[in-house]
Write a structure and sequence with these properties.
This protein is an alpha+beta fold. The chain has four domains: 2-219, Glutamine Phosphoribosylpyrophosphate, subunit 1, domain 1, CATH 3.60.20; 234-370 and 481-553, 3-Layer(aba) Sandwich (Rossmann fold), CATH 3.40.50.620; 374-468, no CATH class; 559-623, no CATH class. It has 25 helices and 17 strands. It has a six-stranded antiparallel beta sheet with strand order 2-3-1-9-8-10. A six-stranded antiparallel beta sheet has the order 4-5-6-7-11-12, with helices on one face. A hairpin with a 5-residue loop joins strand 4 and strand 5 (70-78). The radius of gyration is 24 Å and the shape is globular.
């Protein structure tokens, strides 16, 4: 795991400023404290920060072939690099190192821009073809790694984090009101947008191709899941999924440095630990805990999992005081606001794990792949709601809307009745109706037709959804949007804040592409979520673990702290018209939300917390000594 940065004056022959590229790379030194490197070729400059994981002595970057015709900077891991290495050597390529980075170089020389389809891994990378004067910048299929970029005046600037792009800027970006609008809908900013005007993030499975004075964004990952010709029997599907899990974990354990696991008390990380035991034992297992007085504490469950499966359990104690002291720093590392309580425990568990290991596996992914969230029940059974006569739906919908504080049910009724597939999915993701979110903004701040702006970015996924059922299509969108742009995004930022590489074996391409071909009956059966995944769990986990309820990293405790921390200041922050967010937002609309929440007419706590997060983020930007971000042009 590393950090990349670069600049290419593709619209001119103007030389890049070397010190600027060095400044960009050094702004993300926390991502790679072990080494740094640079390459300059007239109007192109590449910078790199290294966290040494594989081939500790031979993996220096930027790396080239022997002829220095192709150069690469690469953040991530290519898990099938050994197989690709053997294939390339059989074709006559001579590789000089043991690193997966060199496989990228020779793979590009063999397959050109199709090289990415040969990779099973996570990456944000840039390839410079000296002879063609072509630059490729790409993000992996599942979006585990990030690439941010800005194009201005014929110049492309890119990096693993926003701060690298900002380090090259002479002007200061404004907050993008459309991105802010989407954040308040989803609690994260979906790619390709960021909270900064002019700075974008590559969507999963896409690349920038820059040559001949032009820069275009293209989708390189176009996998269209087709149902199996012969539908899988239950036992067969479970057996195949277990085999895929084992192969994925074996690949993800490849490392020349110590490896551990981030362990919750639930099924997914318990199964992951059991799978890791197929290839070793006594893994260090790290869990965030909050003390015996909290009913939602996971330390006891995780400790029991570790004991039953032979791991060395290492608890990470977090108290409210440390949470409050660290919160501004955590928001700064995020770079964009994300209203998820899991951010805080992720930060602290990575901080502790880094004392012992450089790599940690985490059980992210089965919820999205196999239908683990409550919203999946609504999406799956929504066809029954749409099958009701319009008059019946109208009567029932009106009754639901009159209920106090049942926002999730109200959103479900509204969203699942929407005819257009992508707009229906958009509504499922949304915290509130379009008019509610739009009403928080001042007049003339938002452009026309912004309501479903992100839907237009999603439309290129429709061909890939051609054979997917209703739930399968929604899950494909989750893998494209909420998973990479929220959960994986803050996982990357919180882990790399402490220079630790977090790997997600459940998102191995073989697993994802198998799951997407199965169909909804393997996801939800008789109201039971993650049906097939749970069946695999039953084959490896003892009953004490199987009977537990899902809790994550004890996030309810952090929710309570967050609530307590901001509740005293909630009115001050949200009602103070000098708050920074009111350069874009309308205080009247925010007060209405707060009053409805206080009077129990509606449960707006998620949206209110998102607003407080926006204000915390804006104040953090104002504190920044290097860059002053103009809010709404002010």
């Amino acid at each position: 795991m590393c950090g990349i940065a670069g600049q290419f004056n593709f619209g001119s022959q103007e030389q890049v400023v070397e010190e600027r590229v060095r400044r960009m790379a050094r702004s993300i030194a926390h991502r790679g404290p072990d080494d740094e490197g640079y390459f300059f070729d007239d109007n192109l400059g590449l910078g790199f920060r290294r966290l040494s994981i594989i081939d500790l002595s031979g993996g220096h970057q930027p790396m080239s072939d022997a002829e220095e015709s192709v150069w690469v900077v690469f953040n991530g891991e290519i898990y099938n690099y050994q197989e690709l290495r053997a294939e390339l050597e059989a074709k006559g390529h001579q590789l000089r190192t043991r690193s997966d980075t060199e496989v990228i170089i020779h793979g590009y020389k063999e397959w050109g821009t199709d090289v990415f389809n040969h990779f099973n891994g996570m990456f944000g990378l840039a390839i410079w073809d000296v002879r063609k004067r072509r630059l490729l910048v790409a993000r992996d299929a599942m979006g585990i790694k990030l690439v941010y970029y800005r194009i201005s005046g014929g110049c492309l600037t890119f990096g693993s984090e926003i701060r690298a792009v900002l380090a090259a800027e002479d002007s200061t970006p404004e907050v993008d009101p459309v991105a802010l609008n989407l954040f308040l809908r989803f609690r994260y900013v979906p790619s390709p947008l960021t909270m900064f005007q002019g700075i974008r993030k590559l969507a999963p499975g896409t690349m920038l191709v820059v040559e001949n004075g032009r820069c275009s964004e293209q989708r390189w990952y176009n996998c269209t899941p087709v149902p199996f010709d012969n539908p899988k029997q239950d036992a067969e599907a479970a057996r195949e999924l277990l085999d895929l899990y084992k192969g994925a974990v074996r690949r993800h354990l490849l490392s020349d440095v110590p490896v551990g696991i981030l362990l919750s008390g639930g099924l997914d990380s318990g199964l992951l630990l059991a799978l890791m035991n197929e290839y070793g034992g006594e893994w260090p297992a790290y869990t965030v805990g909050y003390g015996e007085t909290f009913a939602d504490d996971e330390l006891a469950d995780a400790a029991e999992t570790a004991r039953l499966l032979g791991a060395k359990h290492i608890p990470v104690q977090l108290d409210r005081g440390e949470f409050e002291r660290s919160f501004p720093k955590i928001v700064d590392f995020l770079e964009e606001p994300v209203t998820s309580s899991s951010v805080v425990p992720m930060y602290f568990v990575c901080q502790r794990a880094r004392q012992d290991v450089k790599v940690a596996l985490i059980g992210q992914g089965p919820d999205e792949l196999f239908g683990g969230y409550t919203r999946h029940l609504g999406v799956h059974y929504g066809k029954h709601w749409r099958g009701l006569p319009g008059g019946v739906r109208s009567i029932l919908g009106g009754a639901v809307n009159r209920l106090p504080r049942n926002e999730a049910l109200k959103r479900g009724v509204q969203s699942l009745g929407t005819a257009d597939r992508l707009q229906r999915y958009h509504s499922v993701f949304s915290l509130a109706p379009l008019e509610t979110i739009d009403g928080l903004f001042k007049d003339d701040v938002l452009p026309p037709r912004r309501g479903h702006a992100i839907v237009e970015y999603w439309r290129d996924l429709l061909p890939q959804m051609e054979h997917a059922d209703e739930l399968g299509g929604f899950q494909m969108l989750e893998v494209r949007s909420s998973l990479p742009d929220e959960l994986l995004m803050f996982g990357d930022k919180m882990s790399m804040a402490h220079s630790i590489e977090v790997r997600v074996p459940y998102l191995d391409r073989t697993v994802v592409e198998f799951a997407q071909r199965l169909g909804a009956r393997f996801m939800i059966r008789n109201g039971e979520r993650k049906w097939l995944h749970r069946r695999v769990c039953r084959s490896l986990l003892p009953p004490q673990i199987l009977k537990r309820k899902k809790r994550g990293f004890a996030v309810n405790v952090v929710d309570g702290w967050f609530n307590s921390t901001v509740s005293g200041r909630l009115a001050e922050t949200l009602l103070d018209e000098q708050s920074l967010m009111y350069r874009l937002l309308n205080p009247t609309g925010v007060r209405r939300l707060l009053n409805d929440h206080r009077s129990n007419r509606a449960d707006n706590h998620k949206l209110l917390f998102s607003l407080v997060m926006v204000e915390q983020w804006l104040r953090g930007l104002r504190r920044n000594q290097e860059h002053t971000v103009h809010v709404g042009g002010a």
